[in-house]
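Q: I'm writing up a methods section and want to include an example of the input and output format. Could you take the sequence below and give the corresponding predicted C-alpha cells, formatted cleanly so I can copy it straight into the document?
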Amino acid sequence: MAMPKPHAGECLGFGRGSVAICLLTRGLDDLLSSCLRGVLAHTPANVPVLLMDDCGPGDTVEAQLVALGPRLHDRDLYFLRQARSVGFVENMNLLFAMSAPADVIILNDDCEVAEGWFDGLRAAAYSDSTIASATALTNHGSVASVPHRNQPVGSLPAGWTVDTAAAAIRSASRRLYPHIPTIVGHCAFIKRSAIELVGDFDLEFAPGYGEEVDFSQRCLLRGMSHVLADDVFVFHQGSKTFNVRMEKLKADHEEIIAKRYPNYHGMVLAAASSRSGPLERALGIASRALRQMSVTIDGSCLGMGITGTQVHILELLRGLHRLGTMRLRVLLPRQCTAYARDVLNSLHDVEEILVDDVDDSTERTDVVHRPWQVARLAIHIALAGILFFASEIDEFHSRPSPEVVEHHTNLRVHSRDKCAGYRLNRLVEYFPFFGQPPFVENLEQVNISATEVFENPG
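A: Here is the clean output for your methods example:
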C-alpha cells in the first residue's frame, strides 16, 4: 500500500480554513485500528489525517495501516515515524507546523469517534470568533465526562455502543457550548488563530502532561475561550497511552501550572462543582441521554396522617413507578403511617431515604419534587434542612402556599454554615400570617440561629 510519508517538518500545503486531524500513537494494544476505523468512516474524505508513530515497538503501526486496506483508498493519510520517542508535546508541535495554516483536531489513539463528530466539533469551535478550542464529551475526560460527572470511567453504560451513545447525545443536545477552563486532550478542535496568537505547546511540559492546560491559559489571558462541544461524544479508553505520564512528572508539571496560573485550579474546581449554568445543564442533558432520569419525591409528610396531600404523594409515586422510565427515590420521616407503609412496600425498586440521613454525601438526583405545601412555622424551620438537601441536587420543584412563594428562595441555603446565620426572627418577619410563635415573648429578643434549631429542636 502506498501512502504519503513526508519528511518531518515538511509543510503539506493545506489551506487556511481547512482542518487536519493530528493523531499520535505508539501502536499499542490495537487501539489505533479501532480509532482509525471510526475516523475514516465518520470524517469527510477531504480531511487529511496526520499520523505520527512515536517510535513504537517494532513496525506495528504500519502493519495496522496495511490491514485497513480499502478504507484508505482516496484518503489523505500521512504517516511519519520518529527515530526515537520524543513524547506528546514535541510531536504535536511538529504536526502543528506541518499542517499550517489549517485548523487542527488533536485525537488520542485510544479514542473512538462516531457520526457527526467532525462537523459537531467544528460548529462548536466556530460558534464564536473568540473561541480557541472545542472539546468533545467523553466517558473518560475529567470535566468533560458523562454520564458520571467528574468521574472518568473507561467503559460505556451497559447496553450502549459508541455509535448509539453518540447518536443519543447528539439528538438530546441543546448545543449550549458551555465554557470550560481548559482543553481536555482526548479529542479537541484547536483553531489556527489560537496557535498563531499564543504559540505552540511549551516544551517545558515535554514529554507530556500539562501542556494543554498551559496553552489554554495563554489563550484565556489573551481574550480567547474554550468550549465544550456538548453534541459530540467520543469514547475514550483512558490511561492506556503515553506511559511516561508518571506520578513524579505529573506532580512537577502541576507545580509549574500552579506557579504560572495561580487561579487555574480554582477555576477547575468551580467548573467541576457548579450546580447551575450552561456547563451543568449540558452535562446533565448528555448524562440523562445515557441513563434513566433520577427523581426524588419529598414524602417527609407521610408520617402526619392521611389527607389528600399524602394520597397525592403516594399516587404520584405509583404513577411514576408504573412508567418504569426513571430511577425513583422517596424522602421519608422515620415513622410512616400504616397506609403509607403498605403502599411503599408495594413499590419495588423505589429507594427510600430518611430525612435525618441527608447530608453532603447524599447522592444527587436529577430532580427533587415536593408536592405539598407547608403551613406551620415549625415546618418552615425544618424546611431549611430539606432545602439544604435540595441545593445539592440539580433541580428543586416545590408547591409552596401563595403567601410563601414570594420569599421562598430566602430559605434556600447551600451549606450549614450559611444556614447557621439565618435567624428565626427573620422567618417570623417574612411570614407574619403564622402569627407570633407561642414560645416568643418579645420578637425583638429572637436571636436563635437555624443551627441551634437543628441541634436542639426542642
